[in-house]
Design a protein that fits this description.
The protein is of the alpha+beta class and 110 residues long. It has helices spanning 3-12, 32-38, 75-90, 98-107; strands at residues 47-52, 55-60. The chain has 3 domains: 1-40, no CATH class; 41-68, no CATH class; 75-107, no CATH class. Strands 1-2 form a two-stranded antiparallel ribbon. Helix 3 runs antiparallel to helix 4 (98-107). The longest helix has 16 residues, at 75-90.
């Protein structure tokens, strides 16, 4: 196989390889070409770093992961939360804590 054929095969598999460096402070820049192939956004994102026998691997942390501070709720999820709060308020029960109810609702999503 020629180099061109190998390139076409690897490119069709969304394969990319770039050389980068780890800076003195331990900062690693993931080249734009790699982020593009992985479809990683330009803004900051959370990743998991894991050791391997030959070094380490970096894996994107899904937005749904509990440790991801960028988790965003959908409009439907927010509507459910607001509806629950409205129902609690309308119930007239004085011994119900909206903060506690909201916390229980948020904890149930993880």
């Amino acid at each position: 196989m020629t180099n061109s054929e190998w390139y076409d095969i690897l490119n069709s598999m969304n394969y990319a390889q770039k050389i980068t460096k780890i800076r003195e402070r331990g900062q690693l820049t993931i080249p734009q070409e790699i982020r593009h192939v992985l479809r990683w956004p330009e803004e900051e994102l959370m990743v998991k770093v894991e050791t391997t026998t030959s070094g380490f691997k970096v894996e994107r942390l899904p937005t749904s992961h509990p440790q991801n501070p960028n988790k965003k709720l959908s409009q439907a999820q927010w509507q459910h939360i607001f509806k629950s709060m409205e129902n609690i308020s309308k119930s007239g029960k004085q011994n119900v804590s909206l903060t506690k109810a909201l916390r229980q609702d948020r904890d149930s999503h993880f």
